[in-house]
Design brief:
Layout: E1 3-9, E2 20-27, E3 30-36, H1 43-53, E4 58-63, H2 76-85, H3 104-113, E5 132-137, H4 139-147, H5 160-179, H6 188-194, H7 203-228, E6 233-238, E7 242-247
Parallel strand pairs: 1-4, 4-5
Antiparallel strand pairs: 1-2, 2-3, 6-7
Length: 253
């Protein structure tokens, strides 16, 4: 049975800014990159992308807050993430209903609910789960855990040469998920995405490539949670105040 694993790197201001999307398909034996989005600049376009690529069994992993119930301050899971990952530079942005009264992730979950996706994530039941469901992830701590990094990869901010250097490392790490036998299968699509000439990209094109790489990582995190469940993943937080799913630690498949 083939399952879709869809990664969404959700823009904070989803209507007008670029959101990355990527799709992996396969089974516990391995997954292939089958689609990378282009030009997603609205919540409706995100929903359409997911709907176009989701099979009856599909997991959507979203980099963006899916549950926000606190009026001010941080979500409890963001406080926990800061305590665990601040030394590596992987603390979260603070989300609350005063700062963002209608979070894009919350609206996306509601929209996907009309397409049969459930947001009732429980790690103990994630392994091989059937049906359509969604989960929240965060690339920075995921990379730290997957690859045992001492610090986050610096590709989000800074001078363009520094960002290109960080994105080059991200490309290499994504490729290693295939070459090291960690469930991501090598394909032409993956090779093209992860060997793109970064020196030829700047401005919006560089940012959109960054979004595509992040979305591909999110799709892999959906696969990782579905493949291993509680054995190799951790849910930080809960369904009441918000949560983030991260891999437990680097290790063989």
């Amino acid at each position: 049975m083939t399952t879709s694993f869809i990664g969404i790197d959700l823009a904070w201001k989803v209507d007008g800014n670029h959101t990355g999307g990527a799709v992996l398909e396969g089974s516990a034996k391995g997954v292939r990159l089958t689609a990378v989005s282009t030009g997603i600049r609205s919540l409706g376009a995100v929903v359409d992308f997911v709907a176009a690529h989701a099979r009856a069994d599909a997991v959507v992993a979203i980099d963006g807050p899916l549950i926000v119930s606190n009026r001010t301050g941080q979500r409890p899971c963001e406080t926990q993430m800061a305590r665990r990952f601040w030394r590596q530079g992987a603390s979260c942005h603070s989300n609350n209903l005063t700062r963002t009264p209608a979070p894009a992730g919350v609206r996306l979950v509601a929209a996907l609910g009309t397409r049969g996706f459930r947001h009732d994530f429980e790690l103990d039941g994630a392994k091989g789960r059937r049906g359509r469901w969604v989960m929240e992830v965060y690339p920075h701590p995921a990379l730290i855990r997957l690859f045992g990094l001492p610090r986050i990869l610096a590709y989000k901010k800074g001078a363009v040469p520094d960002r290109r250097r960080g994105l080059g490392r991200l490309q290499a790490y994504l490729l290693s998920l295939a070459t090291d036998g960690r469930g991501l299968l090598m394909t032409d699509a993956l090779g093209e995405l992860c060997t793109r000439d970064l020196d030829a990209l700047a401005g919006r094109r560089l940012k959109e490539h960054e979004d595509s790489l992040d979305a591909t990582l999110c799709a892999y995190l959906a696969f990782h949670a579905w493949r291993f469940g509680a054995a190799r993943n951790e849910m930080i937080g809960d369904l009441t105040g918000g949560y983030i799913v991260v891999p437990c630690a680097p290790g063989p498949t």
